[in-house]
Amino acid sequence: MTTSRRTFLKNSAVLVAGTALLSKTSFAAPKPAEIVGIQLYSVRDDMKKDPVGTLTQLAKIGYKNVEHANYIDGKFYGYSPMEFRKILNDLGLKMPCGHTVMGKDHWDAGKKVFTDSWKKTVEDAAFMGQRYVISPWMDETMRKTYDDMLRYMDVFNQSGELCQKSGMKFGYHNHWFEFTEKLNGIKVFDIMMKKFDQKLVVMQLDIGNMYIGGAKALDILSQYPGRFELIHVKDEIAVNTAEKYESSVLGKGIIPTKEAIDLGRKIGGTTVFIVEQESYQNATALQAVKEDFEVMKKWGY
């Protein structure tokens, strides 16, 4: 099994600093406001070798939206924002959201301001036409104690204010520790959901990652209705590794993926559905995400 995105993001962060719904609406055509896209980490090796060729293949499959997972030193996959926007435009692709870890080094605690690096991240996201700037990890040093957690929840909300100035929202993408770790007897995930300013900060619910932490998407969606504008659409199969699960083609695993995204559509406030697959079993990455796309179409998305 290749290194998972969960491990990849953790290492990168260190280095840088219900009910089954079968109603008619479940099968209806997507509303105009809804977005279906692909997280480019799904095809990370292909993007590393040939970004333009890979994006071309994704467009041919039928994807209209992508979510990046590679913004380094002011560039997207090695291209300046202007260059990358042109590439996307030429292929008829849009990038409504993207993942960039916001760490301790992006916040000057003494001056209580964001660093120029984080400000540039937000500026470039706005230039790309993003609606959301999403941090996909929270370093352990930011959540050692309950007070630490509250302090950085305030920073998250301030990042939301910064993004709002450019017409965007700040967001956070869960993994597994948010459901297994507690501070003052409260799960980290619940602290986040309580302390996020809903007008400024959103939770992008990854319905696959939470399984390692023993959480289920249908339960969380029901517990916090209207709180998940974005969902990472995934399925998982059980494997004999420390992480216990790895992602699979949609509909082939143990997660009730369709029921979860239908519930997100119905009560979760979800309008952005981002497909992500990190492991491919006996397929190539592009073969897998093509099959995922066909499944989403079959499901009415």
Q: Helix count, per DSSP?
A: 12
As a whole number of angstroms, the C-alpha radius of gyration is 18 Å
Tell me the fraction of residues in β-strands, as a range.
Answer: 15-25%
Ends apart, CA distance between termini: 30 Å
- Tell me the helix content: 25-40%
Quick synopsis:
The chain contains twelve helices and 16 strands. With 301 residues, the chain is an alpha/beta fold.
Describe this structure in words.
40% of the residues lie in helices and 19% in strands. It is an alpha/beta fold and 301 residues long. It has one domain: Divalent-metal-dependent TIM barrel enzymes (TIM Barrel). The strands form five sheets. It has an eight-stranded parallel beta barrel with strand order 1-2-5-8-9-12-13-16, surrounded by four helices. Strand 6 and strand 7 form a beta hairpin. Helix 4 runs parallel beside helix 12 (285-298) and helix 7 (146-164) crosses helix 9. The longest helix is centred in the middle third of the chain and has 19 residues, at 146-164. Residues 10-27 have low confidence and may be disordered.
Q: What labels describe this entry?
A:
12 helices; single chain; alpha/beta; 19% strand; 8-stranded parallel β-barrel; two-stranded antiparallel ribbon; TIM Barrel; 301 residues
